[in-house]
Amino acid sequence: MNAPLALLAELTHRCPLRCPYCSNPAELTRASAELTTAEWSRVFTEAAALGCLQTHLSGGEPTARRDIVDITAAAHQAGLYTNLITAGVLLDAALLSRLTAAGLDHVQLSVQDADTTNAENIGGMPGAHARKRTAAQLVREAGLPLTINAVVHRQNLHNLQAIIDLARAWGAARLEVAHVQYYGWALANRDALLPTRAQLDEATRIVNAARGELRIDYVVPDYHAHRPKPCMGGWGSRFLAVAPNGDVLPCHAAQSITGMVFPNIRDTSLHDAWHHAPAFNRFRGTAWMPAPCQGCERAEIDWGGCRCQAFALTGDAANTDPACALSPHHAVLADALEKAATNTFRYREFS
Ligand code: SF4
Ligand code: FES
User: Fold this and answer.
1) Is a pLDDT exceeding 80 seen at residue 23?
2) Has this prediction a pTM greater than 0.90?
3) What was the pLDDT predicted at 349?
4) Sign of dihedral through CA atoms 139, 96, 239, 18?
5) What is the rounded average pLDDT of the residues 343-348?
6) With 0-12 CB in 10 A as exposed, 13-18 as middle and 19+ as buried, what is 160?
7) Any alpha helices (H) in the chain, and if so which ranges?
8) Cα separation of 69 and 80, whole Å?
9) Where does residue 230 fall: left (phi above 0), alpha (psi -120 to 50 degrees), or beta otherwise?
């Protein structure tokens, strides 16, 4: 069995932004149920022992935790490369200086658009865009490498070239352009977010033209695909997440699969969760696969696609991902594209 490459540490679900494409589960963990600093410290030590090389400190908004500096220090002391995935709106020079001293290695900063008005409509937080620009500047001044994360969809794809220009102007070494994946809260906003085929083709053209001047990672949308992505590199193969309440997950969206029971770090070790938990073994390898995947030449390439998407669209996580044209459920994607016709977001309130 492979060792997990990276640990996604979801420190909290609290966040000052209200992005309609949030992949966190519809039911969020309250602050009182979050893991403590000491529990996170144990998670990092066990992750390093398991073979993880890096951790993504994420959320929600990780800097909403008052102990974010101590948590970063614990991850660093465990020997993990530390990457802070942040909206940037709570970062100031003092906090960044303490994080850097604690061993922070890298920052990924999200932007919702290059256009301030649209960005703040999408993120649901007035004033956020200017704070992000300041955060980017502080990160560069601290000498830390910066990646800009841009989640793209029907309401901001017309500004994709401007988003690429923004990433360059803000000093990013890398830009991640990721089309929305529809699980968690994003599914509730799917009709407002799904891009048209023409938008997707234009986005792909723009990204390809900009490559070379800036390192761009491009995550394409499933709804226009004929074959699925190898989600997580295969369930329980490369990826490990710990949710704010301590649930140990094979993917950040796994809690959207209702009825599945996940091990919790308060009851077990990370080693036992990874190696022995039924939830991790359920979709490992190829033996579990249904008919179109069994014997398919792509079975060990895409691993039958995404379990969370199979559950979201068919009600059964053990089905072939409908993004595959060979799935008997493939038509649900075309139906969703046809119905996507609103420009109104559903926001959720949580702090
Ligand atoms: Fe992948 Fe299954 Fe489709 Fe084959 S049938 S391409 S393994 S999802
Ligand atoms: Fe969970 Fe794809 S997002 S398996």
Assistant:
1) no
2) yes
3) 64
4) negative
5) 72
6) buried
7) 37-50, 68-77, 93-102, 116-123, 128-141, 160-169, 185-188, 190-193, 197-210, 270-276, 278-281, 299-302, 307-314, 331-339
8) 15
9) beta
| Ligand 2, CB within 6 Å, residue ranges | 183, 231-232, 235, 251, 253-254, 306-308
Q: Whose CA is nearest to atom 1 of ligand 1?
A: 304
- Binding site membership of 228 for ligand 1 (Cβ less than 6 Å): yes
Q: What is the DSSP letter of 177?
A: E
- Gap between the Cα atoms of 247 and 67, Å rounded: 20
Cis peptide before 124 (omega within 30 of 0): no
In total, the chain counts a number of residues equal to: 351
Whole-number Å distance between alpha carbons of 188 and 179? 16
Count the Cβ atoms, other than its own, within 10 Å of residue 53.
Answer: 14
pLDDT at 325 over 70: yes
C-beta neighbour count of 90 within 10 angstroms: 17
Q: How far is the CA of 300 from the centre of ligand 1 (A)?
A: 9
Q: To test ligand 2's pocket by mutation, which of 282, 306, 319 has the most ligand atoms within 8 angstroms of CB?
A: 306
